[in-house]
């Protein structure tokens, strides 16, 4: 098995276009859930919504990674995996949201709010640029086959994927889960209720980012709830998770796991205990978020 650089995680969806995950809470969910993969070959920044093009350094040696197919060079949106429709209602936004800064000048405000929620260790994990845009884009891509790393709102988990065995016995090593444990602990230490409150407070910025990413006729909150539902459906592999390495990239040996959307793959590679802990946190966050949603209007009964 080729040795990968210690700063690269081989087990993660392939690279490709660009996009990013949810402010604090989902920020960690994207975060914990998400940001838990590693850096790979970085490509040019091509998203029109960022308003510029910047060259991103490319790793000198390409890390092995879990992927179902080579990354497509196109920046066009990928088709989303099928997710069940999520019944939703408008969020009850606090009056204080009227004082929010403009989206493209919101990083300082978002970092200040996240600092109160995450503390210094959590802030050190964040990439402090375009946080809302990255978060919204990442969330959107979790049900697709790939989630580009370059614009994630968090730094990747350090270290390389740990494997055991070779050939038909190649598998994710049991101790690979330790790499993710500190981040999962950070997530589960956050009050889901406080995280939901912060999300609602910053939601107008998320909605604007959602529109700028090309979704003028839908609400970002609906997409977020659908993505959480998908993550909660992630398989929970029991025992050894077998891998294959047909070329440079790793793939899951089980075709069902290999066909799973990117967000579910990220959860699965964290280890069963970590995966369940993140799911428990997501369920509570979803419950607290729904508590802040206005019930759908009840149609009046016909006159008799």
Instruction: Characterize the overall form.
Output: elongated
Integer-rounded radius of gyration: 19 Å
What strand line-up does the widest sheet have? 1-2
The fraction of residues assigned to DSSP E strands is under 5%
Q: Figure out the total of helices.
A: 9
Question: Percent helix among the residues?
Answer: 25-40%
Major sheet summary line? 2 strands, antiparallel
What is the CA-CA span between the terminal residues?
76 Å
How would you describe the oligomerization state of the chains in this entry?
Answer: single chain
Structure notes:
Helices cover 37% and strands 3% of the residues. The chain has 304 residues and is an all-alpha fold. The protein is elongated. The chain has a two-stranded antiparallel ribbon. Strands 3-4 form a two-stranded antiparallel sheet.
Summarize the structure.
With 304 residues, this protein is mainly alpha-helical. It has helices spanning 24-34, 107-125, 131-141, 181-188, 192-212, 220-232, 255-258, 262-268, 272-290, and strands at 163-164, 171-172, 243-244, 251-252. It has a two-stranded antiparallel ribbon with strand order 1-2. Strands 3-4 form a two-stranded antiparallel ribbon.
List the helices and strands and how they pair.
Layout: H1 24-34, H2 107-125, H3 131-141, E1 163-164, E2 171-172, H4 181-188, H5 192-212, H6 220-232, E3 243-244, E4 251-252, H7 255-258, H8 262-268, H9 272-290
Antiparallel strand pairs: 1-2, 3-4
Helix pairs in contact: 1-4, 1-9, 2-5, 3-5, 4-9, 5-9, 6-9
Which descriptors would you attach to this protein?
single chain; about 300 residues; mainly alpha; two-stranded antiparallel sheet; 9 helices; 4 strands; disordered N terminus; disordered C terminus
